[in-house]
């Protein structure tokens, strides 16, 4: 009875956060801190800081992983799953409905859809500016970011992006291996190391087995699951980085048009919850609501396996300067990947004339300097796109 009460409480709280948490991963972490640490007192400041640090270290959606971790620490693995469902489901439902409307009424060429594509330009640019200050603050990391930009821009394939991440990790390992940690800490997490190791093994088995099965069977559904799983598994730096990975996985295959892809990315900014729920929109456009659910499960599964697998080993990882150095290199490369994605496909498909650039400039000022919430930017972008369509 007590476990059921804990599950119900977690579901209610996480669903409320899923309905109200606008603003991206950093804002989500602020909402979580207010709710879980200050109000509910489910964990102390130190434990929450440890969990946030781990989520930043791992690939995948940071806010979702923190939410899963909070649930796990509150009541075990089932509570972690409940927390994830509550936080994710509201935006999944909204984006699946939007995708259904897009395909049913053939509104891909509507002016407000073009406005949403311009919103995507502004959102990604803002993300690059914010992340660049933290992830590439010195000359060596700026050079890594530049090399990542050149590689992903000139040689566009999913293999290039994976290669860039691996090379950046090696460079970071070499350059920053003597980086001194001044925050050696320890924490306790309620997961056995054997179970955690099983999750990590399953993560890598799926990462390498799905592409092989895709080639051997030629199955469409295995190919879809592989594309979304691999995108979710290779994303360092937050939800915005999943954009270029998904775009290069789905658009060249002809599974979704570039216009529909960018329209959905813009719409994703208008809903609360994690940016990875963009997969729900993509899957629904491709294969209806079943496709939306499968795509969502596939893209979030790596995050779930990684957070469960890494929790008991976090002390060893975070206090290892060499591993931290590799992560510093990867994080710098993320900036280059984002800039590459900003140019193509986002900029080249959205800024087609002077008036498009003007609208983007207005939206950028509203977001960065007036600090208006993202949903206001999205609504303004949609209205602006409609007006442009009437000109």
Structural notes for this entry:
The chain contains 17 helices and no strands. By secondary structure, the chain is mainly alpha-helical. Helix 4 packs across helix 13, helix 6 runs antiparallel to helix 15 and helix 8 packs antiparallel against helix 15. The longest helix has 33 residues. It is globular and about 60 Å long. It comes from Jeotgalicoccus aerolatus. Its main location: membrane.
Summarize the structure.
The chain is mostly helical. The chain has helices spanning 2-20, 25-39, 45-57, 62-75, 77-104, 111-135, 139-154, 158-175, 193-217, 220-233, 242-250, 258-268, 278-310, 314-318, 321-350, 354-368, 374-390. It is a multi-pass membrane protein.
Largest sheet: none
Structural class: mainly alpha
Number of strands: 0
Number of continuous helical runs? 17
Rounded Rg: 20 Å
Low-confidence stretches: none
Helix content: over 70%
Strand content: under 5%
> How would you state the average pLDDT, rounded?
85
How many separate domains make up the residues? 1
Net shape: globular
Secondary-structure element sequence?
HHHHHHHHHHHHHHHHH
* N/C terminus separation: 63 Å
């Amino acid at each position: 009875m007590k476990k059921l009460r804990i599950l119900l409480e977690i579901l209610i709280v996480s669903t409320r956060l899923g309905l109200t948490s606008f603003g991206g991963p950093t804002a989500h972490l602020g909402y979580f801190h207010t709710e879980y640490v200050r109000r509910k007192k489910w964990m102390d400041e130190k434990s929450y800081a440890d969990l946030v640090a781990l989520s930043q270290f791992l690939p995948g959606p940071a806010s979702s992983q923190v939410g899963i971790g909070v649930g796990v620490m509150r009541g075990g693995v089932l509570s972690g799953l409940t927390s994830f469902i509550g936080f994710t489901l509201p935006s999944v439902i909204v984006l699946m409905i939007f995708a259904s409307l897009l395909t049913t009424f053939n509104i891909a060429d509507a002016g407000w859809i073009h406005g949403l594509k311009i919103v995507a330009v502004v959102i990604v640019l803002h993300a690059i500016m914010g992340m660049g200050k933290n992830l590439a603050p010195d000359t060596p990391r700026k050079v890594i970011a530049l090399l990542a930009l050149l590689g992903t821009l000139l040689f566009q394939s999913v293999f290039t992006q994976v290669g860039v991440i691996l090379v950046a990790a090696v460079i970071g390992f070499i350059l920053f291996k003597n980086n001194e940690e001044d925050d050696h800490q320890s924490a306790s997490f309620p997961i056995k190391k054997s179970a955690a190791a099983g999750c990590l093994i399953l993560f890598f088995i799926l990462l390498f087995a799905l592409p092989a099965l895709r080639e051997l069977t030629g199955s469409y559904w295995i190919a879809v699951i592989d594309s979304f799983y691999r995108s979710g598994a290779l994303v360092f730096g937050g939800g915005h980085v999943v954009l270029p990975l998904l775009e290069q996985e789905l658009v060249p295959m002809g599974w979704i048009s570039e216009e529909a892809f960018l329209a959905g990315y813009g719409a994703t900014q208008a809903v609360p919850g994690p940016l990875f729920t963009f997969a729900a929109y993509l899957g629904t456009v491709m294969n209806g609501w079943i496709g939306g659910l499968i795509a969502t499960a596939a893209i979030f599964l790596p995050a779930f396996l990684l957070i469960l697998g890494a929790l008991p080993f976090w002390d060893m990882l975070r206090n290892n300067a060499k591993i931290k150095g590799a992560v510093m290199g990867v994080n710098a490369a993320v900036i280059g990947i984002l800039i590459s994605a900003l140019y193509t496909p986002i900029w080249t498909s959205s800024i087609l004339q002077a008036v498009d650039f003007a609208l983007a400039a207005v939206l950028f000022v509203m977001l960065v300097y007036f600090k208006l919430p993202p949903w206001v930017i999205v609504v303004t972008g949609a209205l602006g796109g409609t007006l442009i369509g009437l000109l």
